[in-house]
Automatic annotation (TrEMBL):
Domain N-acetyltransferase: 1-161
Protein name: GNAT family N-acetyltransferase
Pfam families (UniProt xref): Acetyltransf_1
Gene3D superfamilies associated with the record: 3.40.630.30
Species of the source: Chryseobacterium oryzae
UniProt-listed InterPro entries: Acyl_CoA_acyltransferase, GNAT_dom
Length: 199
């Protein structure tokens, strides 16, 4: 399976991605923010999406979007083709999307909204924590994206404080020590008090 940052060669998958997003939401009976072909194509062309494929066949997709003038990055629209599910594709896509978000926007907080257990597991392994919606971007345009969701009325009744989706947030400064521990060599003292470095 290939996991790649999107480019023009992936445009051929856009209709299939949009259709599967819609069909999966219908099957699950859950809400989803609707994305147009134009919007998804733009994400693909800008290199703001990650695509998984196998032998030229589309496997999965996810994209990033910045909010609040770059203070936040959302990872959205994760979808895996039904015949490729439960083989770790979503995990690999989300890892790459997370890496892409950190590379492009190192100081931004990264978040996602989900009703799915699989995504909660993946996010939690990447260091995201569940939060209430006031911790997320308050950018009107982001929340306007929920207008097409079947649960929009619930969101409004709750004054945008919560809804059926779980919000998960990764805060870079809170994870700096963990990231540093992974990238820095461990320094150990020997018994004879000489210092040595083990990597
Ligand atoms: C949710 C979805 C993206 C998962 O894709 P996937 O490639 O099958 O996921 P993975 O194989 O990487 O599995 C990741 C983890 O979730 C678990 N998982 C996968 N599907 C699951 C499901 N339907 N219910 C509960 N757990 C699930 C896996 O066992 C794995 O857990 P583990 O790491 O403890 O073994 C895919 O089912 C899908 O596209 N669903 C429809 C769209 C959707 O729900 N998108 C998410 C919107 S936020």
């Amino acid at each position: 399976m290939e996991i790649e940052v999107s480019s023009v060669m992936h445009l051929m998958y856009v209709s299939e991605i949009q259709q599967e997003m819609y069909d999966s939401a219908q099957r699950r009976g859950t809400g989803i923010a609707k994305r147009s072909i134009e919007y998804l194509s733009k994400k693909i062309l800008e290199g703001n999406a990650v695509i998984a494929s196998e032998n030229g066949e589309w496997v999965g997709f996810c994209y990033i979007e910045t909010w609040s003038h770059g203070q936040f990055v959302a990872n959205s629209g994760l979808i895996v083709s039904p015949k490729f599910r439960e083989r770790g594709a979503a995990t690999l896509i989300k890892e790459r999307v997370f890496q892409l978000s950190r590379e492009k926007y190192p100081n931004a907080k990264i978040f996602g909204l989900t009703t799915g257990l699989a995504v909660m597991k993946i996010n939690s392994d990447l260091g995201y924590k569940p939060v209430i919606y006031s911790e997320l971007t308050q950018d009107e345009e982001f929340w306007n994206g929920c207008k097409n969701c079947v649960n929009y009325e619930i969101l409004m009744k709750k004054e945008r404080k919560n809804c059926l989706c779980t919000a998960m947030l990764f805060v870079p400064e809170k994870n700096q020590n963990k990231e540093a521990a992974v990238s820095q060599p461990e320094i150990k003292l020997n018994n004879d008090k000489e210092s040595s470095i083990s990597i």
